[in-house]
Amino acid sequence: MIQLKKYGAIDIGSNAVRLLVANVIEVEDRDPIFRKSSLVRVPIRLGADVFKEKKISEENIERMIDTMEAFKLLMKAHKVVDYKACATSAMREATNGSEVVKTIKKKTGVQITIIDGSDEAAIIANTDLKSLIASDRSYLYVDVGGGSTEFTLYSAGEVVASRSFKLGTVRLLEGLVGHNTWAEVENWIKEVTAGHTKIELIGSGGNINKIFKLSGKKDGKPLTYFYMVTFYEFLQSYTYEERVTELGLNLDRADVIIPATRIYLSAMKWSRAKNIHVPKIGLSDGIIKSLYNDKKLPV
Length: 299
Hints:
Layout: E1 2-12, E2 17-27, E3 33-42, H1 46-53, H2 58-78, E4 82-87, H3 89-93, H4 97-108, E5 112-114, H5 117-124, E6 138-144, E7 149-155, E8 158-165, H6 169-173, H7 179-193, E9 199-204, H8 206-215, E10 223-224, H9 225-236, H10 240-245, H11 257-271, E11 275-277, H12 283-296
């Protein structure tokens, strides 16, 4: 007997807002199967407002209302049984973040939860990471966003340490990340990975997914440190316009991909990792998993 239910996850990031609709297939005597059904991405760069002006602009509030209204209709069309909307770094830091949440709820009925960095890391840990993690190795999971990056160290299949830093692609583009932040990240990574051997990276986020796609590698194969260094230099040899016209990058991806690559490369260097795995999972996938698991809990 097979049962199908659809869940929705809204990820309100500093660079873009996404709606993931996922099929959860329940089969008797088997673990549920999670399959992506639809992914819609709207490039509202909230971080450009917040990290400079400390608040979300009226224009972007209107765009958010329109986007949530559209997402609500899409979820209705997909017959989504439940959803969760999570906002991260930009909404966290906006002085009018709570006010915007109330406005969106009033205008669209969509309830948004603003989560902190540790919540973000915990939700991401709900994903299928366990199936990727070998028990004899240590992994540094790196989720790069527009406003922050979440780092989680796994060893022997368990979480050893987890931390969120205000090191994000939009922040870097706006020149809002100082030397002290980089030094803090470097020290933390070196400290938590000291004594661990055979460390590998697991990368998530739209930028590393795009890098992986451009590499032409088969799914399941990691990218090497040498490849990432070469790719970083290759990207920088193109102008922004050329990255759009010749490399086929979206307008809102062509600028953030360079600082994102720098973050992944730095994490690889400081953790002594030679490979980075790209499983194409992130906050949205974690939200779906946590939603489903909450529904399965006994009342």
